[in-house]
Amino acid sequence: MTGSQRRVVVVSAGLSEPSSTRLLADRLAAATVADLHARGVAASAETVELRPLAHAVVDAMLTGFATGELADVLDRLYAADAIVISTPLFTTTYSGLLKSFLDVLDRDALSGVPVLLGATGGTARHSLALEYSLRPLLTYLRADVVPTSVFAATDDWAAGEGDDGGGLAGRIARAGRELAERVAARGPAAVHDPFASVADFEDLLPGG
Amino acid sequence: MQFGIFSVGDVTPDPRTGAVPGDTARVRAMLTIARHADEAGLDVFATGEHHNPPFVPSSPTTMLGYLAGVTKNIVLSTATTLITTNDPVRLAEEYAMLQVISDGRTDLMLGRGNTGPVYPWFGQDIRQGIPLAVENYALLRRLWTEDVVDWEGKFRTPLQGFTSTPRPLDGVPPFVWHGSIRSPEIAEQAAYYGDGFFHNNIFWPLHHTRQMVRFYRQRYEHHGHGPADTAIVGLGGQVFMRKDSQKAWDEFRPYFDNAPVYGHGPSMEDFTRETPLTVGSPQQVIDRYAAMREDVGDYQRQLFLMDHAGLPLKTVLEQIDLLAGEVVPVLRREAEAARPAHVPAGPPSHAERVAAHRDATASASDTADTADTAGTTAGSLA
């Protein structure tokens, strides 16, 4: 293992307990960490469940600032080398709780950060929901979203790999590899400091 | 150290009675509150400037001009004056007029304003918020310090041979604060000019306040105005007091639960823990606010929000009495005892600024024959 330990923060937006969304999150995280280890990069993952933070997220939307456990979670997220987001699909799109959570982040906090997307849903009819809903949102935040996102329908949990490797396990492995590649190619995450980017006032004046 | 109150002038139903004051009653309540604060011995009354309901104070210098005539000692200020949507020519004229009328009991706090629709009402565009604030303030300073101004910029018609009248009192403009809740750029602007920085932290946790004030202090020193601990800092505050702290909690809770901004959100328990809101006895308010200096250093102005969320006028006046009678004398004594001698006790008064201006002018003329006087501190108003 070389270099400093890379940290993968996993955000799981499932509401039930136990949750298939959490199960998917754990498998995506494990695939990423395993692939980093195979590349000789030290890495670990920690998972954040949004459900216990739901009230704090709403408070932060109303007051404009995060407190307590949510504030700690945001600090860890801002310092992450990579982020895995796993959400259930509700009425065709990612959960409202996840959207509210993303709404309270500092706008520049995810800029350039490698992100892997996962979602769970009832049937394969929602397979592209991540592509038309969550991916554009992360693109807006200028996150570096890997090409493979993983949608797991109920059927997927029972299906085998088949002949072409297109089953759930194969997709998870590919997505984890893509995220690991981004992390390995990128230096350790810089400290997020909102005061670092303030221009000297001289430069704001005409002729400055 | 100065202690005072600031008002946003919100028209909010009283959640206990459902009563809603009309605009006229609310404006008159603000006048009564300001006069009462002066009589009670508070140092500052500051009014917001808003151009949309449910807020009434659209015309600060009209209100403050009246108050200048009916108050004796209190400093009349703003929280905030919109440097983006007001024409800097009008600001130069109106606040110089107020300064003359109040005989120097005037300062003002500039802010950008964050309500997008307000900008086009005054012919501006919120996307230009920061460039507007930068250009307008640079022009405002020139209009106050130079008798005849030739000027051309991006956002208003050029000026040729323009003189803003009345000229500032004794040739020295009012002291300026820059107010910001979350924009470090504004702290940087205040630091660049050596002006005051007011951080309205009433809805924010202390760790954020600490960062903003530290940043301003560092930049103040960087720009050559003196050591970081001599920078001029003001903070917001929010309290509700009764002698019996449980009574304070019971009485204030419906106002908290239904208040604009934070109502229907976090519990009062959470909010009082995380923000400067203090509900309880005068002693609890003293303990909380006396400790602020441990996080932000010795500071010069503390303003409290007292008339909001539908609190009845009678209650607000009682709160002012408690603040001025029981809290401020102790806080003032403690701040004075803790303050190192080289740190200013308050923002510079008009008399101090006149004296500083005289000294600067005298030393400039002493050296005029031998040195390039352009080397004086870039941002100094004096």
UniProtKB/TrEMBL annotation, chain A:
Keywords: Flavoprotein, FMN, Oxidoreductase. Residues 7-156 form the NADPH-dependent FMN reductase-like domain. SUPFAM superfamilies: Flavoproteins. It holds the Pfam family FMN_red. GO terms for molecular function: oxidoreductase activity. It comes from the Bacteria. It comes from Cellulosimicrobium arenosum. This is NAD(P)H-dependent oxidoreductase.
Automatic annotation (TrEMBL), chain B:
Residues 361-382 have a biased composition (Low complexity). InterPro entries: Bact_Lucif_Oxidored, LLM_FMN-dep_put, Luciferase-like_dom, Luciferase-like_sf. Residues 1-296 form the Luciferase-like domain. Residues 338-382 are annotated as: Disordered. Keywords: Monooxygenase, Oxidoreductase. GO terms for cellular component: cytosol. Residues 350-360 have a biased composition (Basic and acidic residues). It comes from the Bacteria. The keyword Membrane does not apply. One of its GO terms (molecular function) is monooxygenase activity. This is LLM class flavin-dependent oxidoreductase.
